[in-house]
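Technical note accompanying the year-one report. For the benefit of new consortium partners, we illustrate the data format agreed upon in the data management plan: each record pairs a sequence with a structure-token string. No post-processing was applied to the example shown here.
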Amino acid sequence: MVTTTGDDKELDTLILRLHIETACRTGSALGIRPSDLDVGQHLVKLAGKGGTVHWQPISATLLRMLTAHLDRGAGPDEQLLRYRHGRPITRRRHDHLWLRAGRQLPWVATQQISTHWIRHAALTWVERNFGFAVARAYAAHAHQFAPSGATMTYVRASIFEVAGALTALTNEAHPLAGVSRPHQRQLLLYRFRCGTRPSESPRA
């Protein structure tokens, strides 16, 4: 219903798909700039709470939707999500989206479906199917602690495992999901030493 009603169906469809795939918060979505897209490796850079910044795997479908949205006039370092006339959206677009859904589908209002609910549902699915460490990495939490309170030094998941979870969630292949372990180490070492994104690192 969200994607078939309203005055900007393309925008609402993009917003919904973005939150379902990445489980990002509203603020993270609003902070995405065109320069945050890594087309080569199907990644988007998201800023989160606690000053976290991370590269999140996205499907080819979502990547196409985001790159098509560039036609709305955002500069390389300007907010990507915009209305048709080029004005950047605010949190009110998200609020309006769920209010509209609640009017059309009473159960949406009754169960208080929201962007936060979508995030929780997506992360719960990842945790149940891929474990706590992958869900933690998927959520990009600022503090890496296990349920027991112990540090997650030995249970930290990689971006490749997150890409694998995304592949299962979307049923779309991801370029990082099938990377061999030796190549994974090469990519990660190069990124941390040089501060580059995966697509800027050498290929094996």
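Partners are asked to follow this layout when depositing records. The radius of gyration is 17 Å.
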